[in-house]
Protein: Dihydrolipoamide acetyltransferase component of pyruvate dehydrogenase complex
Organism: Streptomyces indicus
Amino acid sequence: MTVMTETLPQALGSARAGDTPIREFKMPDVGEGLTEAEILKWYVQPGDTVTDGQVVCEVETAKAAVELPIPYDGVVHELRFPEGTTVDVGQVIISVDVAPGSGPAPASGETEAAAPAAPAAPAAPAEGGEPEGRQPVLVGYGVSQSSTKRRARKGAEAASVPSQESAPEGTYYSSPAAAAVQAELNGHSAPAAPAAPAAPAAPAAPAAPAGARPLAKPPVRKLAKDLGVDLATVTPSGPDGVITREDVHAAVAAVSAPATEAPAAPVSRETTPAAQAPVQELAVASGARETRIPVKGVRKATAAAMVDSAFTAPHVTEFVTVDVTRTMKLVEELKSDKDMQGLRVNPLLLIAKALLVAIKRNPDVNASWDDAAQEIVLKHYVNLGIAAATPRGLIVPNIKDAHDKTLPELASALGELVSTAREGKTTPAAMQGGTVTITNVGVFGVDTGTPILNPGESAILAVGAIKLQPWVHKGKVKPRQVMTLALSFDHRLVDGELGSKVLADIAAILEQPKRLITWA
């Protein structure tokens, strides 16, 4: 994703002392209050010519990967940090000579020595710009006025350790074993993995033209970085010269295969869990017994949030098993409804609608705990979070004001949310402000679980697998579609009675979906 700049260049950088035409670009707050980001990739080098709006680097925050555009025209003077470095928000990461040849520029060593000596001074606001005391940034509320310091990376070896996260692009959850279950639950066929081109015995991929940036989506760039593949050496097979995940895997196979052996077979996405993790395969092939993965980015933020939630909010989880045969029939009917044509219609859609109706009937469940003010904050809106596993880790984007949406509108928003997450384009703003969440563990074939609350939310609903089971229906044992739901809630906000009412309402709607009409 590319962060668009709407502010003046003067608000984003500062000129050096004197008349030297050097502009400095600082690490912006690309989310709401984030404090640091890791530089994943530089797309320019000193001496390269850049234009206003050109993407110069890709960074990863605790929320997502973001491409940063430069707000100046000129020539790159200096890159302050190498790839793999974690940089605090507000630190200068690149300087640009906006008038090359017009004046002397300080030596590189001089600037490097000055950088850690003192925190970067805030830019002087342009006329009519930001008031003193707050430094403008690309997105968010601005950076702290406290001094920033560079947090050194653990070492070059840590930066080179590959990640095991290699979930196929296009899966809503990362488990390959759950592909068939997910297809059934989501109401669409699981996409077949395109065959990777046969890898030659020795790498013979033509290098990209000098200065040209290889075309690839952010998840593919992350995969290439984890596997140590230079995208400039990869032969693209996608439309318009776009590099795909299969191209990266083929490049890895080409390098690792001995010249005397046949080319390695393309990595399968749908066979076994081992095939899902090419990093593990490479480690085993080289005789390694362990693989160490740096905890950073989305995974680091998720771990911190879950620990904080688990040891801050007193969790209670309740369960209910419900006959959803009528709901499954309604899903099939809605697929042929003219008002739902072209929309994603699956059980998750009706489960989401049932949860929204239950919240409407029991509004006190939609709240948060303000510890600082010692207040309970009742929300009169529902931002419905949907947990999604991506190659970068678990993220929870949410549908804003889901309570106001009709069923077709909710289906459209849900489809857009899933597609965006698959493409790795979920923005930090889309993952903030959630009030209640659904996590669909049923795609793994799991009956249910005890989910941990997202910080700031009062409830999370775990959706189990839908299975054909013997069920007592109208006094007779019959095969019925059955599923188990689990509702975890913050016991400071939600007592047993309220939690039970919410879960019972959801179950009643899914058992008799006609209640959606009368209760909504």
Q: What stands out?
A: The chain has three domains: 1-126, 165-285, 298-519. Residues 298-519 form a domain with the Chloramphenicol Acetyltransferase fold (CATH 3.30.559.10).
